[in-house]
Amino acid sequence: MSGKRNSKPSAKRAAQPRGFFIFFGLCIFAITGGILWFNGRVSTLDCRRVESTQIDCAIETRWLGWLPLEQQTVQHLQSASVNQGCSENRKNPQSLETCVYGVELTTAGGVVALSPTLASGGNEEEKYALVAQINTFISDPSMPALHTAQSELGPQTFVLGGLALIGLAVAATQTTRLLTTRRGGTPGVKPAA
After folding, report:
1. Tens-level pLDDT at each residue, the chain (193 residues)
2. CA-CA distances (angstroms) from residue 49 to 56, 59, 74, 151, 163?
3. Backbone phi, psi, residue 58, to 5°
4. Cα distance between residue 117 and residue 143, in whole Å
5. What pTM, to 2 d.p., does this model score?
6. Which residues contact 133 (CB under 8 A, 6 or more apart)?
7. Which residues contact 139 (CB under 8 A, 6 or more apart)?
8. Quick one: which of 26, 131, 165, 184 could link to 80 by a disulfide (CB 3.0–4.6 Å)?
9. How far apart are CA 100 and CA 83, in angstroms?
10. Pairing state of beta strands 77-87 and 119-120?
11. Distance of alpha carbon 155 from alpha carbon 169, whole angstroms
12. CB 102 within 8 A of CB 115
């Protein structure tokens, strides 16, 4: 018996790190994809004046601006307002409040949210500008229609999207290597004929 050890790692030992990377990649993809699912919504509001005092609207919500999620009809629009929800950090009373903002539409039948989620961060001015635009349309009977959009997309959307794609790429690459190695081949090397 020669004193040489087999330098090739066993298939089981090689599969363990790849399994970890597959799991890690899928976790990154799932977490960032989930965040994008809730924060990647774009809501459009299309309103038309049926009569001088009656305004009917349609709200369409799309994911990342292209995948339709929800459509809703709003009749007898009366006003728009900003819904603000703030909370303080109870563990650290010196910290600043965290606030989220959303646009609400008041109709003859009640209050309807323009977007199903409140958005956090520095878009407070954007929400107030949108509310002013809607209320101007409501009060000006010479305007026949209004088309506007509320987007929760920002720079974080591109960062999270990139992380999701990296996680998916890591999982796909490691899965391909694992499956190719289990079949007895080496990735990228064709077996001899």
Report:
1. 555 555 555 555 544 566 777 777 788 888 877 777 777 778 899 999 998 889 999 999 888 777 888 899 999 999 999 888 777 766 666 666 677 788 899 999 899 988 755 655 447 788 889 999 999 999 999 999 999 987 766 666 677 777 777 877 887 887 777 777 766 555 555 655 5
2. 7, 15, 12, 24, 44
3. -125, 130
4. 29
5. 0.64
6. 146, 148
7. none
8. 131
9. 8
10. unpaired
11. 21
12. yes
Taking the C-alpha atoms of residue 128 and residue 93, their distance in angstroms, rounded to an integer, is 28
**The token pair that represents 169 in the structure block:** 């790429």
